[in-house]
Structures are given as C-alpha cells and as structure tokens.
Task: structure prediction
Amino acid sequence: MKKLNRYLITLGVLTVILMLSLFTYNTKILKHSQREDFVFQPAKFSDLLRDGRNDTNHVLTAAMRISKGGQKALLVTLVNDAFLPFTFSWLCNTQGMGIHNQVLFITGDNESAMKINQKWPEVTAIQIDGVHSGNQEYSHVGYVELMVRRSEILLEILEKNIPIFLFEVDCIWITNPLNNIQSYSNVDVVVNAVSSRSNVIAGGFLYLHPTDASKKMWRALTKQLVQLGMKIKNSADEKLVSEGDNDQQYLSKLVFSKYGGLRYKILSTDDYADGKWYSFSKEERNRRKMPLILNNNWISGNLAKIKRAKAWGHWFLTESGHCDPKNIERIVDQHLL
Result:
C-alpha cells in the first residue's frame, strides 16, 4: 500500500510539473504572437520562390568582396560548360582593360569553375546548383530555365545594394564600356536596344543601379520567370517556348512601362551593336562609327557563333587554347573590326 501511495504521489507531482511547463510555454507563445512587429518573413525573396532553398550564400559573399561592399560595380555572368570557349576568348579579349578583378562567373559545375579560376586567377568563378549543362538554345526550355536561375541570383545580389553590370561572353569588347555606362547616373537601369525591334531590349546586357525602383522591377521579373519555370519544369530542355514567354520579353514590358517608377536609359546599337552588324555591307559598316561592344547574337548555336567569330577575326583563342595576340592587338589596340 505504501509503495502504491508513493507511486501515486510521484505521478501527481510529475503531472503538475508538466501542466505548469505547458502553461508557461503557451503564455510565451501568446505574448509573442501579440507583438505588433511579429511577422514571419522569408530571409530572401528567392528563398520563398524556390521553396526555401538557399544555396547562393557563397555567391553573395563573393559579390560583396568583389564589389567592396557595393562600392564598385560587379560584372557578372552565368556560364556553363558549353560556354567555356566563349569565356576564355572573352577573357583574352579584355585582359588589358583593368576589369577582371570585378568579374564574377557563376557556373553550373565545379570543373568549369576550377578551370576559370586556375587559368585566370584575377577573376572569380563560383559553382551553384540549378544550372543546366550543354548547349541551350534561345527560347527553349533549357535556356529559359537558365534565365530563371540567373534572375534569382541577380535579385539576391541587388538586394545587397550592389551595382550589377550583367554581360554575356559571346561578344567582342572593342573598348571597356564601364565608364560610359556608369555615366548615366540619373537612372535606375541602363539597357541595350535590339536591332529592328523598337519594343524589345536585350536581356543579357544591362546595368542595374541598386535603387528601390530597380529592385521592384527585378522582383517582378523574377516572379514572372519563376512562374514560367514552374509551367515548363517537366518539359524536355529541347522543347520550344513561346517567343512571348522569356526573360527578354518580360524585362522589356517592365522597363517600357516604367514599372515601380523605373527610370531607364537605352543604349544605341550604334555604340553597343548586336549581331545584325555582321549582315551589313562593307559600305554600311564603314559609314557607321566604331561600336564599343559587338554582341555575337542573331545566330543560333554555339558552333555557328564560334565559326562566325573566327571568320571575322573576332575570336581571341588559338587552337592550342592560348590568347591570340594578333587579334587582340587588331581589335583592342587598333580598333579594326
């Protein structure tokens, strides 16, 4: 009987302790929930869009280091293994322009990042998840998914108040354009026109000042692209996506509508030429002034782009993979296209 009484007493004490603990816990929760400033927010906008995934902290750390905490512009581009030849050609092209220490390459595989860092230690290359490998053709599923990933990353960098110069490596830099682009300081974004399309701007060549308006615009762009990514996520990479559904179209509409009070400057194709330049007659090219940048677009496929660049002397790699000093001197030093 005594053992039973001790057992019942012990059980009663434990029950009282448990009830007091639950009461204290619930009281804390109630008080916490009544605070006016208690609002759940995801750490980053793109974390919410990507189901809480956050694998870009190392990118943000590098971006802060390279930009010196947002004091300098970050030159950033997304490349995969198929774009390594363009990457190395562009690095040779620009090696004397004094901008490599501001460049961040974001890659989809460790091997590509290692190759870039080993051959060109002044630039920074970092691998992230979610970047397709191989050739990805414009306006196809694989390409669009790359643009979704790029937009997400750029948003996180922009939210850190870092000026962003987005560029692509399938282009020729006759002159370093950074000072010219940064001279437009009374705008939120500097964008590039597209030949023969007055209502479209280039999606891969732009400068973002980290203003409230540019952030609002880029959040809206990222949201649209993530929604598109969800629609096509089960489709094959090679499947064609409607021309009305890509980063270029979404970006153009947001910019021209002055979304969120956005102020913009459009760069002329006279100074920032696109691939239509290659179709001009010799007389037309001579009539036009020398561009600062020549983008190797308006042509499909990486092999076709490389073939055209080599034919025009706009390729800066030798067959052995070294920089071609003759083409560099002719284009960069003598400004002979």
